[in-house]
Design brief:
336 residues, mainly beta
Length: 336
């Protein structure tokens, strides 16, 4: 049995035609198919596949349909469809719709139990990535004071604060305290940022057959060749579909070697990746995640014991064609 099946699918009020099967729910469990618009009423509708893991939950289904017919949900849908006076859809203004606050879903920032309510403060803030935060000044006249090791860029009410690259060969996590002042009101934001730098080398990948993954000698030749582009950047690059990730790579059949060194506290860490296509993760030259094959977007995890001090992290990645993704994160899961 494959691990981590998806669960709890509820597929309701659909009509699917012109397909061999109505759905593909391999490696799934606990699926609910709406019986109100069940397939099979017309000869040209797609059939359900055999062995579909269906469950019977008529009461839950009925409650969902009843909820979708309520006046309240209709008002929500109407709000989402209607543009605001500023030309921004109200769907982007849910949290601060009636204020001068920031717009967009990414400004809904979750704390432990609920979204943060920034109203009444001097700024809304969000963690952009491990090395930067962004503020939106709710008080346009508020001043911001940050540590000298953080770079500050302001544009209107938006202020971006980024950890400057480490002066040593190893990045580290640093605690920050950012002070805001507006009239008689003050506010202090605290957190941690990583000031690491990634060395990224991009290569063209001249082979694209499946057997190429197993040809270690060929990969060594690719990675030992002169890169088509190299850079030092603050974070591991994201790979976006249809976009050239670096000059000269093209959008298909390229490879990446990215390396950084980070000072960690002692303890056990969980490294998590999401990749499409080939991915390898090395920690201190030891391969801890190996997904070196053709695959769609796939997540992997590895638990690694780290001693206190600097550790080298190296990523190997390659893209064939079509869908693509590259993500890596880690978190401490216990104390030393």
């Amino acid at each position: 049995m494959r691990r981590n099946p998806s669960q709890g699918h509820e597929i309701i009020r659909n009509t699917i035609k012109g397909s061999r099967w109505a759905v593909n729910l391999d490696n799934s469990a606990d699926c609910l198919w709406d019986s109100i618009d069940a397939l099979g009423k017309e000869k040209n509708e797609a059939p359900l596949p055999p062995n579909l893991p269906l469950v019977e939950r008529p009461h839950k289904l009925k409650s969902m349909i009843d909820f979708n017919r309520t006046e309240a949900i209709e008002r929500v849908y109407a709000l989402m469809r209607s543009p605001s006076k500023a030309g921004v859809r109200n769907a982007e203004r849910f949290f601060y719709r009636d204020t001068q606050g920031p717009t967009g879903w990414d400004w809904i920032q979750f704390a432990d139990f609920a979204p943060r309510d920034f109203r009444g403060g001097l700024a809304a803030w969000k963690q952009v990535d491990s090395g930067s935060i962004e503020l939106f000044l709710l008080d346009a006249k508020a001043t911001v004071t940050a540590p000298v090791w953080m770079e500050m860029k302001a544009s209107g009410r938006t202020v971006k604060l980024t950890a400057k690259p480490s002066s040593s060969d190893s990045g580290e996590y640093r605690d920050y305290s950012v002070a805001l002042k507006g009239g008689a009101k003050t506010q202090v934001l605290k957190g941690r940022l990583l000031n690491a730098s990634w060395y990224c080398a991009w290569f063209k990948w001249p082979r694209n057959e499946a057997s190429a993954y197993a040809d270690e000698a060929a990969w060594n030749r690719v990675f030992q060749a002169k890169p088509v582009f190299a850079s030092i950047q603050r974070k591991l690059p994201a790979i976006e579909y249809g976009k050239e990730p670096a000059p000269g790579t093209g959008t298909s059949y390229f490879a990446l070697v990215a390396a950084t060194k980070i000072r960690f506290e002692a303890g056990k860490y969980k490294f998590s990746s999401l990749s499409d296509d080939g991915f390898r993760l090395f920690v201190d030259s030891k391969e801890v995640i190996s997904r070196w094959n053709h695959h769609g977007a796939t997540g992997d995890e590895a638990l690694v014991d780290l001693s206190s001090g600097p550790h080298e992290i190296v990523v190997h990645y390659c893209q064939e064609f079509g869908g693509c993704v590259l993500q890596l994160s880690w978190q401490k899961v216990d104390r030393a």
